[in-house]
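Readers of this paper often ask what the protein records in our data store actually look like. An entry from our holdings is shown next, in its original layout:
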Amino acid sequence: MNYIVLDLEWNQGTGGKRGQLKEMPFEIIEIGAIKMDSQFNVIGEFNQIICPSVYTNMHRVTQKLIQIEMEELERGRPFQEVFAEFCSWCGEDYMFCTWGPLDLIELQRNMRYYRIPAFSDRPFPFLDVQKIFAIGFEDKTARHTLEYAVDFLNIEKDIPFHRAFSDSYYTAKVLAKCPKEALAYVSYDVFSLPRNKSQEVHVMFPDYVKHISRLFKSKDSIMADREIMSTKCFRCQKLAKRKIKWFTPNGKHYLSVSYCPDHGYLKAKIRIKKDENGKLYVVKTMRFITDEEVAEIVAKRNLAKQKNMTKPAN
């Protein structure tokens, strides 16, 4: 399998939301990519400018960031033509690698606008090199800029940043230096969400599990789903006894703690998210935690209870 290290540049409307096309808020104007083999040796390069058809005036932020003029874009080729060439260049067996998840989302929005089928009808794996870098070198949750990672790893800065090819070039160099064990932490693109239970994502990582659910009509239907709300030990597959019931510390996600007599305390976290049409889906993670971490969650629950008690009645 090869790795396609991808970076995009895009333009947007100059009149705020009034000048923005809802179906495609960002129009891709450049595709840059590096192809690497399974040993992370560079075996190919791709760099193409796209002539815009929607946003034909350059947004000032875009122009300042990537230093590109509309005259250069007008000499580019249509998105459909460049994308077809890109797909042919990628080949058959590959995995995308990007700095953060946004490039794949915007690429597929552009594909949909031009009636090009999405890469998959369900979430598919890719390497988020920004996350891989944090897992390999920092505290796993930190998210830094690409230039920060290049400086951290003492990578020579021999071409300017903020163009699609140069950023894919540096992302590939960062990826090649990341610990190979960190590559086990694949991400999942959620442009196409599971349509039914059989398409849901269940993935086990070295120290936690993740579940990406199908779409639900309401929060109540999520809370009524037994699989989502259960806390089964992912090592022995036995139901773990609930020690802290589900609660929300901030209204953004839900936490619970259960106990497996063979493997210890298990923290479950549910994040309820919306798709483009306002329908709901769940990203659920579970991991084992220490007694100290259990105490921290107890403190969060108690604080949440106090806040609820002090809320004014309707």
User: Anything to note?
Assistant: DSSP finds ten helices and twelve strands in the chain.
